[in-house]
Recover the amino acids of this structure.
């Protein structure tokens, strides 16, 4: 039941993420103003806005101008729905108030990362305000996790201390790459995503996330070159791979932790 509710909640939040992705660029207000078709500007009714369902019923076309609705909309909604169901359900214990708070913050963090993922793919840049919010949320989450586990915050091995050390090192590593390569290999924004990953995942799951990010990044990068849709110079945004790695690592931590035990030092 929790699983289903979280999935539906994810669909609705995903729908809001789509609005944020669109309006971050045009600098419109996120909450004010009814939603409208980005192509013909026609105001949409509530029944045009039901996540995924409307897209299927309208066969992917705007009711008013018949132009195609981007696949981004149902994609973001479904991804957010699945991530909410997969990653929040297992940690949620309805009798513990703190897990309500953690689940809420996790939901916020997942949504922000989905926004950054799609925004970076579309515009090749990382929106800085969402990136900062992600960092702050991940710090609060690890602090609360220590409180739930009754681990002293500043003790060696607490989620908070490990997160800050691993996150800080990842940030320095990525930031150095950025400066050294004059933002050719990495953008400064990627360093902020790396910081978020380090704080949230600690050790060894940060390593898992980066392995997955670099592997998937090279596979996609090489296949793009092979299909000669790009040369070596084609910029492939890296943050989407980092975020993909983060979500995979969280899934592994939740469902298959035995895969990673050999890495624990
Ligand atoms: Zn339209």
């Amino acid at each position: 039941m929790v699983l289903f509710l979280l999935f539906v909640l994810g669909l609705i939040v995903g729908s809001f993420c789509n609005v944020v992705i669109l309006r971050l660029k045009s600098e419109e207000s996120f909450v004010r103003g009814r939603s409208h078709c980005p192509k013909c500007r026609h105001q949409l009714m509530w029944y045009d806005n039901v996540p995924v369902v409307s897209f299927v019923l309208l066969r992917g076309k705007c009711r008013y101008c018949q132009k195609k609705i981007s696949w981004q909309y149902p994609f973001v909604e479904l991804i957010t729905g699945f991530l909410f169901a997969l990653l929040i359900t297992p940690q949620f214990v309805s009798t513990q108030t703190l897990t309500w708070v953690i689940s809420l913050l996790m939901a916020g963090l997942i949504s922000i990362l989905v926004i950054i993922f799609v925004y970076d793919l579309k515009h090749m840049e990382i929106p800085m305000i969402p990136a900062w919010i992600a960092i702050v949320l991940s710090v609060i989450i690890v602090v609360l996790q220590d409180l739930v586990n009754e681990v002293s915050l500043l003790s060696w091995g607490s989620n908070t201390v490990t997160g800050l050390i691993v996150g800080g090192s990842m940030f320095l590593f990525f930031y150095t790459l950025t400066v050294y390569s004059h933002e050719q290999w990495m953008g400064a924004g990627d360093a902020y995503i790396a910081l978020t990953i380090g704080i949230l995942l600690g050790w060894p799951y940060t390593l898992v996330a980066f392995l997955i990010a670099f592997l998937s990044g090279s596979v996609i990068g090489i296949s793009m070159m092979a299909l000669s849709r790009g040369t070596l110079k084609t910029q492939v945004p890296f943050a989407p791979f980092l975020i993909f790695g983060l979500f995979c690592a969280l899934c592994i931590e939740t469902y298959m932790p035995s895969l990673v035990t050999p890495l624990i030092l």
Summary: The pocket of zinc ion is lined by residues 37, 39-40, 42, 62, 64-65, 67 (CB under 6 Å).
